[in-house]
Write a structure and sequence with these properties.
Strand content: 5-15%
Number of domains: 1
Structural class: mainly alpha
Distance between the termini: 54 Å
CATH architecture: 3-Layer(aba) Sandwich
Order of helices and strands: HHEEHH
CATH superfamily: His-Me finger endonucleases
Strand order of the largest sheet: 1-2
Helix content: 40-55%
Shape: elongated
């Protein structure tokens, strides 16, 4: 396939479309619209970066309910994953940082 980059691009696009529909129940166009609504910035109000990372914005969702939340940059998405989406852990970390300011 290396000899046919246009075919590689078509296959990659189809895989992305299939991934979003299967995993999140949205089309690639709907994902793009979600990013536009966020002004092409990370949904985290404390971040707001326009640089999402190599793979683009991550569609954040609750692992408990499956409900979609926002489109996050890679750093914010990984951070949420590292604390298992725990607001209590994040609150504790904020208090910790403020204590040592």
């Amino acid at each position: 396939m290396k000899a046919h980059p246009e075919l590689q691009e078509k296959v990659a696009l189809q895989q992305r479309k299939s991934h979003y529909k299967k995993k999140y129940g949205i089309t690639l166009e709907q994902k793009e619209q979600r990013i536009v609504v966020q002004n092409r910035r990370c949904a985290n109000p404390g971040c707001q970066t326009e640089t999402p990372g190599k793979k683009g914005f991550a569609t954040d969702h609750s692992h408990v309910t499956g409900k979609l939340r926002g489109e996050l940059c890679n750093r914010c998405n990984v951070a949420l994953g590292m604390v298992n989406d725990s607001a209590a852990v994040l609150d504790g970390l904020v208090r910790y940082l403020k204590f040592y300011e």
